[in-house]
Amino acid sequence: MLLLLGVCEILAHVYSVRSATLKENATAREASDLRAESDARIGEAQRGAAEANAKTEGLKLEVEEQRQKTARFQQEADQARLALDKQVRAQGPRWRLLGEAAPSLQERLRSFSGQQAELVMCGPRNRIDPELNGVFQALMRILNEASPNSAGWKVRVHWDERCFSGPSIDVSVDLRAGAKTRDAADVLGKELAKIIPFSPSGAFHFKTEGVPIADPEFMGKDSVMAIVASHPDSVVIGVYPH
Known about the structure:
single chain, 242 residues, 2 domains
């Protein structure tokens, strides 16, 4: 009997040790799996961080490249502007350029003979500006039907006393104007752009109905926008100080 009890105790101890060993092995495998998973996540995070850093560096390079391009384009534009300014100064005032181009411009515009035009001069009527006055006289000789060999247009003159500056000479027309008036504005705008540096490349077509800026109370009754709104069948020419 004692021998049997001894054998049972030995077997129980063996099973107990084996069970503990199995548990330890399971715990060790679980810990190993957790470490492996953790290492995998850390590796993935590190790869993601490396990719993000690479993208950030790439973006920085792109931004710097664009900045350099912008600076280069700005420098080229400034140089071109200075060269053009020197050319303008060498050619002389705008009235001289208009006088030289007058014969061809008159001929080009005679197909719109009888067209109503509004000449809006920037500044008060008594302003002392020989260059601006020269431009006024040159345009009247080219356009006004009362001038010999002119384009035969009917020209009314306005003085915008609130005006200080603008884009040299511009041409505007209301979208409500008829097709012939809009065509006349387009031709005049394109021709003036060929003659006068810094002028817009064509006529502005404005929708003035219900637009606050075209209200006479907003910028004055003699502003270009107010004249465009109040004279929808006219070609409006704005002349600004050089």
